């Protein structure tokens, strides 16, 4: 059976779903690999490098030619139309945002796996592309902030006096938030972090950051929007106070499948020191910062707000390496004797299978 | 006596020679301070903040109004023409590049100090603006590289496998080079460094980097251009080999008052892995990298070369803070009882005084 790696369909996407190293893995499992010419361009993987790993270069999108098509962004409706009954696609596919595409996949009896739907179980870790890409996003958020900050992050003691370390506030301590904390700490910043999940406290502290706590008993593990008005009021007060004291704020609070919670208001930004920088990693899902807009820099007084857009794509070599390995690991879970035949009774595969044999396997809202 | 802080004359200059905190210092020494409206704009110091520190806001350039004019870039010829006999200017003034300006300063009997000419003696450390700005440049060089690199700097061990740490090569281990080494090390890179001065070895090693050595006895303390052809040949071989093995190269080798040595050729760049990044801090003084051009990104195959231009200016808050303190310290060396009266028998002041009482105090080539 043949696995196809296309040029990504969306123009701003610089990652690729397979690299020469994962081509080697797939060929070792008895599969053949088709790579669309130029697929690895932004990830600096040449057609020649794919061929050296044993892949076949093809001029067009592999839909209709390869049995399995792996990509970062989901296929377009046109590409999906070319998929045949029983063909498999693997990508980040958010069904709520792609109704027409889902209809085509169902109609064509395509088996579609979405890495957005992966169950959070131990066996899925090596396949967990949301986490691997969040790692990249958290690191990049700090790079984007540091690049825009007119100040140092580390402390300096010089003959002309001392420069104190920058103060960095990270909102949300999931994978991206923890990586942002770790990166800012590496660079010598004083870091504090907030998360509604009290369980994040030990992880935050283990990275050398201060964990902010509300003086309020709250229900553990429940997202902010689900909390009481008193809780939200206290949270606003705490965040407002800490935002005002920070040189950099990095917000990473996302609620899967829903609009991101607003945590930082324009009034809070106005209390920051001039020259401060805010990076909103949640800008694409509505924003944690009211002033942020995806891919844009917005000045609020003398505070610069950067709304992140597809951060992992800005580091295509390593983001692709992690993603391609996640995809190869998922393929290995469904491949036996050179055939890709997913067992949909498997917890991981069932969890991320969106369409199969003409059926939509998830309820859409 | 009055000290004037102008808006910088060159459009790309974002630093400022005085900040509210140094205004306080000057006023404490019995001086008055005039600040041109908007002077601190890029450094996020408002006119109101200067006034709160006791400064007087003026609408125009202070030349002809203040007795002492402090700036980052030298005054323009027009501004210098407005300076009166006995007025003082302090700036980075490279006399070889500013012949017409020097003529005006001599003709007008202005006392001009250049921070480019400061003697490298212990007493001058608190005034050493070349070093304080090189510190900023070295840090920023890493930020510029990391921002353009499609890879992580740190090592990551993830469920999808390990990402090895990036390899960073720093050429030149002066103040900027050492700071680049320190910053890349903070971010988890594996760093190696080269400098013609064997004396740099211990400093490089103390920062956790490997010091590259030629298997050749060389005359210590002599710059590369002054060395033998055999030395240069060995140096080229060593650098070519290490450039090819690096993900990031940061070159910082400058020879005061002369063209920077070419260390990295286009052929060397072609041997680097695709996606590698080179930052040439010496781009403005001729370049350590043949392909670099100041302020430009140049692709050599799949290697991105960034020619730095005025790096300190890209971090105006802290670059200005260090520079303003250097300038205030220099002013304090020449101020007694509220009067700025430089004693030109003082080693530090004599060293950096370029023109005085109608005389040019340096031989120009």
Automatic annotation (TrEMBL), chains A, B:
Q: Which residues form a coiled coil?
A: none
UniProt KW Disulfide bond keyword: no
Q: What does this protein do?
A: The transhydrogenation between NADH and NADP is coupled to respiration and ATP hydrolysis and functions as a proton pump across the membrane.
What the record says about family reads:
Belongs to the AlaDH/PNT family.
Reaction catalysed by this enzyme? NAD(+) + NADPH + H(+)(in) = NADH + NADP(+) + H(+)(out)
Q: Which InterPro entries match?
A: Ala_DH/PNT_CS2 (IPR008143), AlaDH/PNT_N (IPR007886), AlaDH/PNT_NAD(H)-bd (IPR007698), NAD(P)-bd_dom_sf (IPR036291)
What range(s) does the Alanine dehydrogenase/pyridine nucleotide transhydrogenase N-terminal domain occupy? 4-137
Residues annotated as domain Alanine dehydrogenase/pyridine nucleotide transhydrogenase NAD(H)-binding: 146-307
Stated EC number for the protein is 7.1.1.1
Tell me which positions the record assigns to the signal sequence.
Answer: none
Transmembrane regions: none
What is the protein's given name? proton-translocating NAD(P)(+) transhydrogenase
Output the SUPFAM superfamilies linked to this UniProt entry. Answer: Formate/glycerate dehydrogenase catalytic domain-like, NAD(P)-binding Rossmann-fold domains
Q: Which PROSITE patterns match?
A: ALADH_PNT_2
């Amino acid at each position: 059976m043949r696995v196809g790696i296309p040029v990504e369909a969306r123009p701003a996407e610089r990652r690729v779903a397979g690299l020469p190293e994962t081509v080697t893995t797939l060929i070792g499992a008895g599969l053949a690999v088709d790579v669309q010419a130029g697929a690895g361009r932004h990830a600096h993987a040449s057609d020649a490098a794919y061929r050296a790993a044993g892949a076949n270069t093809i001029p067009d999108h592999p839909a209709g030619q390869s049995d399995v098509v792996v990509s970062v962004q989901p296929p377009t409706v046109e590409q999906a139309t070319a998929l045949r009954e029983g063909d498999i696609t693997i990508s980040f596919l958010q069904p709520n945002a792609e109704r027409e595409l889902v209809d085509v996949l169902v109609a064509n009896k395509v088996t579609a796996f979405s890495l957005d739907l992966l169950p959070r179980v131990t066996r899925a870790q090596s396949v967990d592309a949301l986490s691997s890409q969040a790692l990249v996003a958290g690191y990049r958020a700090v790079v984007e902030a540091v690049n825009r900050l007119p100040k140092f992050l580390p402390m300096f003691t010089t003959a002309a006096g001392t420069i104190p370390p920058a103060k960095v506030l990270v909102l949300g301590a999931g994978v991206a938030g923890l990586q942002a904390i770790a990166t800012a700490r590496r660079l010598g910043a004083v870091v504090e972090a907030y998360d509604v999940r009290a369980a994040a406290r030990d992880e935050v502290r283990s990275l050398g950051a201060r964990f902010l706590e509300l003086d309020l008993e709250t229900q553990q593990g429940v997202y902010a929007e689900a909390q009481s008005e008193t809780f939200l009021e206290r949270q606003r007060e705490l965040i407002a106070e800490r935002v005002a004291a920070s040189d950099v704020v990095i917000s990473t609070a996302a609620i899967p499948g829903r609009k991101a919670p607003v945590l930082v208001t324009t009034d809070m930004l106005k209390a920051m020191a001039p020259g401060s920088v805010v990076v909103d990693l949640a800008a694409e899902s509505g924003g944690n910062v009211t002033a942020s807009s995806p891919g844009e820099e917005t000045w609020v007084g003398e505070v610069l707000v950067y709304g992140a857009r597809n951060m992992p794509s800005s580091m295509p070599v390593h983001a692709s390496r992690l993603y391609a390995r996640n995809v190869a690991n998922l393929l290995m879970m469904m491949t036996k004797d050179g055939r890709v035949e997913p067992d949909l009774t498997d917890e991981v595969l069932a969890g991320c299978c969106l369409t199969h044999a003409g059926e939509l396997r998830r309820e859409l809202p």
